[in-house]
Write a structure and sequence with these properties.
By secondary structure, the chain is α/β, with parallel strands linked by helices. It has a domain of 114 residues: 3-Layer(aba) Sandwich (Oxidized Rhodanese, domain 1), CATH 3.40.250. It has 5 helices and 7 strands. Strand 5, helix 4 and strand 6 form a beta-alpha-beta unit. The relative contact order is 0.21.
Amino acid sequence: MTRWASALLALVLAAPAQAQMKARPPEPEGYRMEAFRAPVPASLKGATVIDTARAFELWKAKSAVFVDALPHAPKPEGLPKNAVWREQPRFDIPGSVWLPDTGYGALSEATQRYFEKGLEKATGADKKKPLVFYCLTDCWMSWNAAKRAQTLGYANVSWYPEGTDGWAAAKHQLEERRPEPRE
């Protein structure tokens, strides 16, 4: 094989890996503030990034609390009284805690307290309890929520970027979930 052909072959073989690396944005210093359904980084400083196989192992062993950060669409304001409103169901990893709207870049005081109390309840106030944050593939909500949990002092945070999309693709069971109530 000529030197030219070898170089061309190396370039062709490296192209998919380079394209995938380019598709992943770098971690921002703070929280992602907009465009939450977009490619996510490959890492989250201070957290463990897990794939579907590892998420399933943790779930099967019941060794972590799974926290869904996907937003919840509220009933539209001003909807006529006779209008039919059907809430879109959320199918989730069994046994998860759904803390919707906690993955935005900036939270209201009420949502911040909701997040803090939700994690406290889910972990029994044990900040060393393993947590797995997720939502959907290419969803910054779980990245932001996992980062936020770390700032609250949770020491064993994992981020599952494939979320329920990866879980369902692996043919793992999902169950309908309602959000944790707000007090």
